[in-house]
Design goal:
Blueprint: E1 3-10, H1 23-28, H2 41-65, E2 69-74, E3 89-92, E4 96-100, E5 124-128, H3 131-142, E6 149-151, H4 163-172, E7 180-185, H5 195-211, E8 217-223, H6 239-251, H7 254-264, H8 279-282, H9 298-307, E9 314-321, E10 326-334
Parallel strand pairs: 1-8, 2-7, 2-8, 3-6
Antiparallel strand pairs: 1-10, 3-7, 4-5, 9-10
Helix pairs in contact: 3-5, 5-7, 5-9, 6-7, 7-9
Length: 336
């Protein structure tokens, strides 16, 4: 029988893949964010070191869990899907996929010429899928009243698998030697699934895994978040919002995490009336359906937390990186 052996969640901000000496340079090229404190290079070095230490802890936990397969919950930011078709949930069922390990674009400053990074052994990698588990998830979720899309291959092979599924593995499994089942959750583009639906989705996935006849040790990763809208004018970090999310991790209350997320996004924020900011909130669809932007990736934490529902999690660290700005979170649930 298949068994969930570990659940993890972490941020995947591009700042985590830049040198900390570059952070203020990138910050200076973005719209003003006066609500964020100015950070010195020394501050950035210390914050970067904390993030790397947190990744190292997650890598250690994943190695100790000895998984046969890793399920990653992530969002697609028009890397494979577009407005011709954007499902709330989808599963990759193919044998393998390719993608950039970290950053697909060369250069770091928005607004400058940023060519595609070369597809070298150092930047581009092939990752094995796990069709058997992926198909069991697809069928099992269908029988539990979830209508989930699927892809047997990537529609956009030139870009490769989206960053949400690639970046975290660069630090927590740099050999990319564990088969991965990418599970797409629409976090950016309204109308997104509610957090409560994400909670139900994660619970159902746990049921399907535990009912599976496969002899497999399954690890789970929620990728993205926490609070961030880094390109939006007057971007900031709601640390209280993130701390409430992390409190739910510590208490094992995935349902409470979902309820709080939906309540916070029940009405459009005041910024939604500003035409310059709407696309950071609804993804440019004109359909508000709850918290969007980078913060919407908290849905991936909710799905992961729901897989571990009832288990108290451990928050490895929370680092409010004001240079981005992004609340960088790192957590795990021991399922042994």
């Amino acid at each position: 029988m298949a068994k969930v052996v570990l659940v993890e969640a972490c941020s995947h901000s591009p700042f985590l893949f830049l040198q900390p000496e570059q952070w203020n340079e990138v910050r200076a090229a973005r719209p003003p964010a006066p609500r964020n404190p100015e950070m010195s290079e020394e501050d950035n070095l210390l914050q970067h070191a904390r993030c790397m230490a947190a990744f190292a802890e997650l890598a250690k936990r994943l190695d100790e869990a000895k998984p046969d397969v890793l399920i990653v919950f992530g969002d697609d930011q028009s890397e494979q899907f577009d407005f011709n078709n954007f499902p709330p949930f989808a599963i990759f069922t193919g044998d393998e996929y390719e993608g950039y390990r970290t950053l697909a674009r060369q250069g770091i400053v928005p607004g400058t010429s940023r060519e595609w990074a070369p597809k070298t052994k150092e930047s581009w990698v092939t990752v094995k899928g796990h069709p058997e588990l992926a198909k069991e998830l697809l069928l099992g979720l269908s029988r539990r009243d979830f209508d989930v899309s699927f892809m047997m291959d990537l529609p956009n092979k030139e870009h490769g698998m989206g960053h949400a599924f690639m970046r975290p593995l660069h630090y927590i499994r740099p050999a990319f030697d564990v088969p991965v089942v990418p599970v797409f959750v629409n976090c950016y583009y309204g109308p997104q699934p509610t957090a409560m639906r994400c909670y139900q989705f994660g619970r159902a996935i746990r049921e399907v895994i535990e009912a599976s006849p496969l002899d497999a040790r399954v690890a789970v990763l929620g990728s993205g978040g926490l609070w961030h809208t880094p390109g939006m004018p007057d971007s900031w970090i709601d640390e209280a919002f993130d701390e409430a999310t992390l409190a739910a991790v510590r208490s094992g209350d995935a349902k409470g995490m979902a309820e709080r997320f939906d309540a916070a996004g029940a009405e459009p924020p005041p910024e939604y009336a500003d035409a310059a900011k709407t696309r950071w909130i609804d993804g440019g669809t004109g359909m508000y359906a709850g918290i969007g932007g980078g913060t919407g990736e908290t849905r991936n934490w909710i799905v992961a937390a729901a897989v571990a529902d009832g288990r108290r999690g451990t928050v490895v660290d929370y680092v409010p990186v004001y240079a981005s700005p992004c609340g960088m979170g790192f957590a795990y649930w021991d399922m042994s």
